[in-house]
Amino acid sequence: MGLLTPEDIKLAQSFPRDFTWGSATASYQVEGCLDQDGRAESIWDTYAHVLGNIADGSDGSVACEQYVRYEDDIKLMKQVDLDAYRMSIAWPRIFTELNGKPNQKAIDHYKRVLDTLRAADIKPVVTLYYWDLPQYLQDLGGWVNRDTASRFGDYAAVVAGALGDRVDIWTTLNEPWCSAYLGYAQGRHAPGIRDDAQALAAVHHLNLAHGLGVQAVRSELGDSAKTSVTLNLQVVRAASDKSEDLAAAQQTRRIGNEVWLGPMLEGKYDPQIFEDTREISKWEFIREGDLEKIHQPLNSLGINYYATQYVRAAVPENQSPDSNQREDPIVGGKNIEILPPSGPLTAMGWNQEPQGLTDILLEMSQRYPDLDLVVTENGSAWDDEVVEENGERAVHDPQRVHYLSQHLRACHDAIEHGAKLTGYFAWSLLDNYEWALGYTKRFGIFYVDYPTQKRIWKDTARWYQQFIKQWKSR
What we know:
Elements: H1 6-13, E1 20-24, H2 27-30, H3 43-48, H4 66-80, E2 84-88, H5 91-94, H6 104-119, E3 123-129, H7 135-138, H8 146-163, E4 169-174, H9 176-185, H10 196-221, E5 227-231, E6 236-238, H11 243-266, H12 271-276, H13 290-294, E7 300-304, E8 309-313, E9 336-338, H14 354-367, E10 372-377, E11 386-389, E12 392-395, H15 398-416, E13 421-427, E14 446-449, E15 454-457, H16 459-473
Parallel strand pairs: 1-2, 1-13, 2-3, 3-4, 4-5, 5-7, 6-8, 7-10, 10-13
Antiparallel strand pairs: 8-9, 11-12, 14-15
Family: Belongs to the glycosyl hydrolase 1 family.
Catalytic activity: Hydrolysis of terminal, non-reducing beta-D-glucosyl residues with release of beta-D-glucose
Pfam families: Glyco_hydro_1
C-alpha cells in the first residue's frame, strides 16, 4: 500500500545523502523482565508501587519484554530499513548493589543486543541514563547527593569499557529537565519529591554527571569516541509582545534550557538564573572546578521535541480565567502562567506546532555552529485501534502519519536554512510504558498487543519505511 503523497516523495528525496534515520526506546519502558539476570530495583519500581502515582496502577515489570524479544524487534527495524537504533542501558542491571561489582550477565546481554544490531547494519546509539536510577542510590539522596554524579561516572566507565566500539554514539543523559523538575520539584515522576531546592541541586548534579560521564567514556575509548547529550529544550512562546510576557518567556527558557546549555556547552551558568531562584537556593552545591568538569567536548547535541508552550506573566486569578497555571509550577516560575494549548491536540493533550522544531534547530545551530544536531525523539500519541484486514491485524493512524510528515518537513526547512541536522529518530519504535501514564498512551510506530506481546504494523511504520526507501533510491 502506497502511503506517501507526491510531496512526501519529493521531501524524502531532498534530505542529505549522509542523513541518519532511526527510532528510539528507553530501557524501563520496553525491557520488562525486571527479575532477570539479577537486576536491582530502580526509582521507577518504587514510584510505580505507590498507590495513585501511575494512571492505570501498572509498572514496567512486563512492558514489551524486549529484554528477551530484542531479536524480533531488530528484525522489524531492519524491515523498516532503519540506519540506527537509540536505546538505553539500565543502570540497575549493571550495578545491582551499592559498591558491588559489575553484573557480567547484564553486560553480556547488552553485548548480544549490540552485536545483533551491528549484524543487521543498524548503528547503536546508547543512552547511559534514561531515568532508571538504582533505588539504593536514591536511598542516599539520589540526584540531590553529589556522590550520585561520581557514581554515574564510574558506571559510564564500566559500560564504555565493556561495550567499547560496539556503540556508535554515547549519550550521557536523556532529558535531565525531567529528572530534576518532574522528579524533584513537581513529584510527577520518580522519585516523586516536591521540593524546589532539591530540584536545583539535582540540576547541578545531573550537569556534573554528564561531564564526568563524557570524561569516563573518552578515558576508556579515547578521543575518537563520539559523545552527546539529549535535551528536551523548551520552545517557549510569549503570549504577547508585552514586556512582562516576554520576560516570563525568557525566564522559562533560562530555567528550562540555559541551566543545561550554559554549563554543558559553554562552561558557565547565566548569572540571571541565580537571581531567578534566589528565594529558593544559594546554589552552594557548586564547587570550584565543577564547571570545567561539566564542560566537555561533544560530537552532537540530541534534541527531543514534541510541542511548544505559551506563557505570560502571572496576574490575579480572577483576571485570567483561561490560564493554566500549574498547581506545582516549574521551579523558579511561580510568577508565570502556562496557557492551555490550542489547535488539534494529540492524545497527550499537546499542541502540534512543527515550526517550533525548525526554530529550535536553527537557534542551536546558530549558537553552536560546530556541533552536529540530531532529533533524538519526535512523535505523537493517539488512541489507536486494531482492525482485521484479509486475515491480518493492522492499525490505521493517519494523525500520527501527518504529525511525522509535518515534522520531517520542519526538519528539512531547518536544514535548508542552515541547521546542521544530521539525523532523526522517531519516538517510539514500540508502544510502551509511558511513565506515570502507564500503558494508557501509545507513541509507537508499531502497536504492541500487551496480552500476547505481538507487534502489529501501524501505517506510520509503513509510511516511514516507504519514506526511507524513497530517500535511499534517489
